[in-house]
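Archive maintenance. Older records in this collection stored only the sequence; we are now back-filling the structure field for every entry so that each record is complete. The fields below show one back-filled record exactly as it appears after the update. Entries are processed alphabetically, and DUF5668 domain-containing protein is next in the queue.

ARCHIVE ENTRY
Title: DUF5668 domain-containing protein
Organism field: Deinococcus roseus
Length field: 124
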Amino acid sequence: MEKSSEGWKLLTVGLIVTGVILTLVFTLQVGLPNWWAWFIVFPGIMGWSLAYQWYQKEGYTPRVGGTFALGLPVVLTGLIFVLNLDWGRVWPLYILMAGAMALLSPYTLLKGQASKTQQFKAVK
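Back-filled structure field:
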């Protein structure tokens, strides 16, 4: 099976599992508050899965870091809704996340690669 089909396989399994869980929740009338928030979390996890596949194939590149960083706010926001957390208490996590995203951003990675190249040229 090709690498590109792995993402579709994960998406398909995720949709089936989500459908089964929602069917059980609504037919058994089990309390699952904010069930809809999982539809916010899943795209972020899919992005992380894609970043991991790229990481295995290419190593740590700006594309890997950028894709992983973009999943951070999506997953964090979804989990805040899923867990029904108080926004007034968890907002500092967004500041931490912004710092992590700055470290993982493609611009930061490319800038670091450029400085390494310049240092290498200086040594020659």
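Update note: Confidence is low (pLDDT under 50) at residues 114-123. The longest helix spans residues 4-28.
Entry marked complete.
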